[in-house]
């Protein structure tokens, strides 16, 4: 049975991929229907920017607004699905040991970093998304508002939003089950100018596995 780098066992099944993503790296792949994608925050407080699309027709893609409306909350967690702009579930969160992820903050970019911090040409998640999407013939027009796993963006009663240290601790993970074949793009956020990564980006682990059919696991 496979384990995360923090010792947490994954359920029985066929492991399709198991890798550690360095800070600032990206990953893009098609996760097949029924497979589970686990993302592990190995050292804690590390934001992971996440986008997904219907693999057969990427013009159908993750829709942040509908996902929040259907969940009835901006803080998606176990039991919630990530919906496309066609009202179809792309992923369902089947396990979540952290419980706090950001649906509204979006991805950092070279342009937004320059605007906010006065520094040009910084590593950023938008460029990572573009590198991953390029492998599948997609580009700038295909980037939409994304999900930020393990990122903490609290919203006050007056509507003001913050950006604070993440609540995840070493070994926290999220399991997402693919409801269809899903093109998935991930950026392990390189941001160092705000506390989304505790000002110190760290690695995460990514595991994809196909669970055993019920009759196989009996």
Describe the structure.
The chain is α+β, with helices and mostly antiparallel strands. Helices cover 14% and strands 29% of the residues. The chain has one domain. The chain has helices spanning 64-71, 110-117, 125-134, 214-217, and strands at residues 13-21, 26-31, 36-41, 48-54, 81-83, 89-96, 147-149, 172-178, 182-188, 204-211.
Mind sketching the topology for me?
Layout: E1 13-21, E2 26-31, E3 36-41, E4 48-54, H1 64-71, E5 81-83, E6 89-96, H2 110-117, H3 125-134, E7 147-149, E8 172-178, E9 182-188, E10 204-211, H4 214-217
Contiguous helical run count? 4
Number of structural domains: 1
Shape: globular
* Alpha-beta classification: alpha+beta
Our estimate of the beta-strand percent is 25-35%
Describe the biggest sheet?
6 strands, antiparallel
Order of helices and strands: EEEEHEEHHEEEEH
Mean pLDDT value: 93
Unreliable residue stretches: none
Q: What is the C-alpha radius of gyration, as a whole number of Å?
A: 16 Å
The order of strands across the largest sheet is 1-10-3-8-6-5
- Determine the fraction of residues in helical runs and give it as a percent range: 10-25%
Keywords summarizing the entry:
single chain, alpha+beta, 6-stranded antiparallel β-sheet
How is this structure best summarized?
The chain is an alpha+beta fold and 218 residues long.
